[in-house]
Amino acid sequence: MANQIRNRPTPLPVRLLCIFMAGLTACSTTRSQYVWHDVAAPSQRGISKSSQVLESWGAEAEGPNVTDPQIKPGFLLAMRSLSDSKLSGDYRVDFDGGLQLPYDKTVNTTGMSLSDLRSKLADVYRAFFKTQSEIDLKVKERRYWIDVRGLVNKPGRYLMEPGASLDQLIGMADGTSKETPPQYVRIQKGQKMFVFDLNRYYNQSEDRPQIQGWYGGEIVFFQKEMAGSSGERSSSSSLRLPVYMLGEVRKPGEYTLNPGSDFLDSLVLAGGFTEKADLDNIEIIRRTAGGKRTYDFSWSELQSAPTPVQGDVIFVHADTTPKAERRTLLLATVISALAAVATSAVLVLAYNKGRI
User: Fold this and answer.
1) Which of the listed residues 70, 214, 256, 266 has the most CB atoms within 10 Å of its CB?
2) What helix, strand, coil percent values describe the chain, rounded to 5?
């Protein structure tokens, strides 16, 4: 009797549901990477990765002869209007790129050239005039806002010349702390970061770090501890672990972790993922004695990820998948789950009736 039941053919609906579920499960399976690799090595995903931990900082500033310069945080702009004298005046671009203007107007100048901003202002104030008003706009002064923090005597925001050196920046902040002199400097703007050794900078026998210029809006942090040189920390040290959460997290920045903390702890401090986060493309960037290395992993395999150590940069990449494709994948996952439930129900029912 048992052999007869075992040899009975499986009903066609059960076969079709099993095949359907298997196909959808394969389609919704996510990819993962679990291999450390050198930054200089080609990406294993076949895509060139641009690490946000930079090997040099800044770019040569545009000269005064450039007729349509890019607007930078700290620029002083001269605006003139024949139609309304209240618009005429000099206005400084804020640290975050905002430009505060008359009639309680604020314009975000990030990524704008002078001509772009001139057109934007014409649109902003069009409703204030019966006829089209001509607004003249010029760059009156080209200096950059730099936010200096950490082990300096006078932390704060300073207006610097485009080609100002690090020494000039330290001078503006009244020098570095003598009680706790800094050994490392971290420069950060948005998701870009550059870290270097101050001792090496001042050692004339070594090549100086490549600070080619300023972008405007940088945070320059003078710190005692190395931000990720060896990937290890002394067991005798009482310092806590700082890591840098960047990319598609709600609160990017530096976070101090207690010993034994893991990736999930750092993610909680950073407010979690944004809606654009690619959970299959999380990258840990670590500086070791042999150079800089990266480790790629997927959120679904969190237990395989290494524990963050001092100076690690955790970068959550953005999901570049088109919305239509993301919806299709989500729908496939939902259908796969429903198919699994349906298949289980059919199999149980068929078993109870002695068909399988």
Assistant:
1) 214
2) 25, 30, 45
Find, among 220, 219, 261, the residue nearest to 240 by Cα: 261
Q: Is the pLDDT of residue 261 over 50?
A: yes
**Total number of residues shown for the chain:** 356
- Is residue 10 helix, strand or coil? coil
Kind of pairing between the strands at 192-197 and 184-189? antiparallel
Edge-to-edge, what's the strand order for the sheet holding 277-288?
36-38, 291-297, 277-288, 313-318, 241-247, 253-257
If we measure between CA atoms, which residue out of 50, 44, 52 comes closest to residue 296? Answer: 44
Q: Is there a domain that residue 267 lies in?
A: no
Helix (H) or strand (E) holding 331: helix 323-352
- Between CA 24 and CA 333 the distance in angstroms is 7
Please check whether residues 154 and 90 belong to one and the same domain.
no
Q: What is the total count of domains within the chain?
A: 3
In a domain, 313, yes or no: no
pLDDT of residue 180: 87
CA distance 253 to 188: 10
CATH number of the domain enclosing 100:
3.30.1950.10
Q: What is the pTM of this model?
A: 0.55
Tokens of 59: 């770019």
Q: Does residue 305 contact residue 286 with C-beta atoms inside 8 Å?
A: no
Please give the Cα distance from 296 to 308 (Å, whole number): 13
Cα separation values, 125 from 9, 88, 98, 139, 256, Å? 78, 13, 17, 20, 46
Q: Are 291 and 230 in contact (CB under 8 A)?
A: no
Between 306 and 330, residue with greater pLDDT: 306
- Give the lowest-confidence range in 86-90, 127-131, 311-315: 127-131
From CA 269, how far away is CA 255, in angstroms rounded?
7
Q: What percent of the chain has pLDDT over 70?
A: 71
Task: For the chain, list the strands marked E by DSSP.
Answer: 36-38, 76-81, 89-92, 98-101, 105-108, 135-141, 144-150, 156-160, 184-189, 192-197, 218-223, 241-247, 253-257, 277-288, 291-297, 313-318
